[in-house]
Design goal:
- The protein is of the alpha+beta class and 348 residues long.
- The protein has two domains: 89 residues; 234 residues, Bira Bifunctional Protein, Domain 2 (BirA Bifunctional Protein, domain 2), CATH 3.30.930.
- Strand 3 and strand 4 form a beta hairpin.
- The longest helix is centred in the N-terminal third of the chain and has 40 residues.
- The radius of gyration is 41 Å and the shape is elongated.
- Bound molecules: 3,4-dihydroxyphenylalanine.
- The site of 3,4-dihydroxyphenylalanine has 11 residues, from strand 9 and strand 10.
Length: 348
């Protein structure tokens, strides 16, 4: 019996030496210590043996099984290690090689300007609100004191969606009306609304059928042009630097009275005159004024009690001025190189 066990063991050792593949090892395992393997076979006829013989055969068989299992598993480990080492060798990373370049995005400078304006106004207690781009004539014009047939509509011809009543908003000013109507006579109203606007325009370096405006509205008691001037001053300094001066020029808008055009001193020539400011020393930034009594009334605010100011300006124009871009289309094409030009920290 012992001899048989010994010869099984020797066979196993001999065969193990020849094994090179995992599959072969699996087969070998079955052949020796599997259910009907050679080691198990040893105990097959145990039932016919006397108790003493059974004991000794059992011991031999158990010992053989343990030894065989150890051997096979040892080999299994060896092979797994070899496989792992081979894999590690093959997949070794040469950390001295230059890495592949991971393309990085750049913030769109138009967005940057809008965020800067939003942050400033939020810090002064304003809400940033939204309004629909597909708008009703009623909000885009009528409530803003621009009745049908009024000449002021000519400059704001836009795209019509359904008949003449549903259109792509030509300005963000309708959000003034929407905000006041939603405010239901409550004050103060302090909001800015950056958003897309549309006009029937041929696209060139300074015009686009779609552009961004930033609208602002404040309604409260005893609001005057001085408040507008102070607010615009803060905005101009934030966007164009502390040395920026501001001025108002009389203007005309249907929804403000009085209306102004707001200018900043030219930051290139400091007011001396250059090509950017067309030798005037000033650059126009926005339209603005005191909210027209009709507009307040149309939107549920008694003009004898409340006053307000409003302003609206083109975000692209601001970004162009601030970053020295001379073609508005840069913001809307997908050429990353253009945006990368500005991908530096401020002041660098
Ligand atoms: N909505 C005007 C435009 O698109 C700009 C504007 C002017 C907005 C005066 C205002 C304002 O709120 O008070 O030309």
């Amino acid at each position: 019996m012992e001899k048989l066990a010994e010869s099984i063991m020797q066979d196993l050792m001999a065969e193990l030496k020849l094994v090179t593949k995992t599959q072969e090892l699996v087969e070998l395992k079955a052949k020796y210590i599997g259910k009907s393997g050679r080691v198990t076979e040893l105990t097959k006829n145990m039932r016919d043996l006397s108790p003493e013989e059974r004991k000794s055969v059992g011991q031999i068989a158990n010992k053989l099984k343990t030894e065989a299992t150890d051997l096979i598993e040892g080999r299994e480990k060896e092979m797994n290690n070899a496989l792992l080492n081979e894999k590690l060798q093959n997949e070794v990373i040469d950390i001295s090689l230059p890495s592949t370049k991971i393309p990085m995005g750049s913030p769109n400078i138009l967005e940057k300007v809008i965020e800067e304006v939003e942050e400033l106004f939020m810090s002064m207690g304003y809400d940033v609100v939204d309004g629909p781009e597909v708008e009703e004539d009623h909000f885009n014009f009528e409530l803003l004191n621009i009745p049908k047939g009024h000449a002021a509509r000519d400059a704001q011809d836009t795209f019509y969606i359904e008949g003449e009543e549903i259109l792509l908003r030509s300005q963000t000013s309708p959000v003034q009306a929407r905000t006041m109507l939603k405010g239901e006579g409550k004050v103060p109203i302090r909001m800015i609304c950056p958003g897309k606007t549309y006009r029937r325009d041929d696209d060139d370096a300074t015009h686009s059928h779609q552009f961004m405006q930033i609208e602002g509205l404040l309604v409260d008691k005893d609001i005057s042009l001085c408040d507008l001037k102070g607010t615009f001053d803060v905005l101009a300094k934030k966007l164009f630097g502390e040395s920026c001066k501001t001025r108002f020029r009389p203007s005309y808008y249907q929804f403000t009275e009085p209306s102004v055009e707001t200018d900043i001193s030219c930051f290139v020539c400091q007011g001396k005159g250059c090509s950017l400011c067309k030798n005037t020393g000033w650059i126009t930034i926005s339209g603005a004024g005191m909210v027209h009594p009709n507009v307040l009334r149309n939107c549920g605010y008694d003009p004898d009690v409340w006053t307000g100011f409003a302003f609206g300006f083109g975000a692209e124009r601001c970004a162009m001025l601030k970053y020295g871009v001379n073609d508005l289309r840069v913001f809307y094409n997908t050429d990353l190189r253009e945006m990368k030009n500005f991908d530096r920290k401020e002041g660098e």
